[in-house]
Amino acid sequence: MLALAFAIAGCSTWTKDESPLYIGVAAPKQYQMRVVHLQLEKPGERSWWYPVGSVSCCWIGEFGPRRVGGGEMSPFPSLIALHWFSFAEQKFYFSLIRVPEGLQDKMRKPAAHSYPDGTTGLRPRSSLVLGLAPGGQVVMWMMSQRSNAVEVMRVSATEVDGDPDDFASATASYLEEHGDYLEEHGLQLDKW
Hints:
Layout: H1 2-12, E1 22-26, E2 33-42, E3 46-50, E4 53-55, E5 68-72, E6 79-86, E7 91-98, H2 103-108, E8 110-114, E9 120-124, E10 127-133, E11 137-143, E12 150-156, E13 158-160, H3 168-185
Parallel strand pairs: 1-10
Antiparallel strand pairs: 1-5, 2-3, 2-4, 2-6, 6-7, 7-13, 8-9, 10-11, 11-12
């Protein structure tokens, strides 16, 4: 009887991984975005926002997708609102994203992870990355590192009113750095 009691008590301490989950934003290198507002909400519990600012990295490739800005998702949100300005297009976009049911459990499921010392192991995909692309495309990935990023969903944002002159100085700097690339390659709206 005593052995059964210890076995039950031991099982009751087993819990699923409750380590923090994070959110951030990414953009293609040559298509810098300025996140005006990133708002998360768990209806009936909490609504909060994170400052992000300008994002010009990292979509895919050697360093991406990788989150910039953002913070911890506690509690795990049901809704994510994004409002941003695209320097390349001189347009403002807004998207209200309904987070897929069960995503938190999927993120917590251990996935293959490579460590800098060359070893491998299992870790939850603790980062949710929202990729903002020209044309108002939003791509959501879950990952612990770029090599195990999994695309969760894609949504199209809505173009909204805004005054590009609010970012005139930043636009001038952006065009100085990426203007030649834009002239040569354009917006590549179908690349993402």
